[in-house]
Amino acid sequence: MNQNFVLILVLLIMLSIVNAIPHQLHKRKTKFGPCGDYPVLDVSVSPDPIVDDKNATYTISGKLKKDITDAYELFVFYYVDGAEGGNNQNFDICTEIKCPVKAGTKFEMKQDALVPNLPSNGYSINVGIETKDYSKFELIACAGTHV
Q1: From 85's CA, which of 4, 12, 48, 118 has a CA 20 to 30 Å away?
Q2: Does residue 73 contact residue 112 with C-beta atoms inside 8 Å?
Q3: pLDDT for 47-71, tens place per residue?
Q4: The pTM is what?
Q5: What 3 state SS string does 50-105 have?
Q6: What is the chain's alpha carbon radius of gyration, rounded to the nearest angstrom?
Q7: Distance between CA 92 and CA 96 in Å, rounded?
Q8: pLDDT tens digits, one per residue of 98-131
Q9: Whole-angstrom distance, CA of residue 99 vs CA of residue 24
């Protein structure tokens, strides 16, 4: 009888230990949404979550209300909450897609961007398409996320 009691006690302890071990959580996917009243780009990033000082590959797609021409560029902007400025990277969009892309035509592209040192939370990422000529600034599409 003592042996049965010890066996049951050991099994209950092992069950308690197994239950106490954290289960692998489902990886949270970074979700990009609208930024302001601009048309929204569909954006995903890999690796997800991003890794400091490594390239992240952004997959960007959508149908825009304006033509994409060589007058526009893609930007990836990292901003840490409460910090002044941010890390802005600009890319020639027409090196990744064949320009012009007529309004209403779906496009898709990939762009690598170097991830700066970021805190584990409390930062934003914005991805958008804007004019290269800042004197005639126009943002034609954007997507953002806050971590």
Answers
A1: 48
A2: no
A3: 999 999 999 999 999 999 999 999 9
A4: 0.78
A5: CCCCCEEEEEEEEECCCCECCCEEEEEEEEECCCCCCEEEEEEHHHCCCCCECCCC
A6: 23
A7: 8
A8: 999 999 999 999 999 999 999 988 999 999 999 9
A9: 44
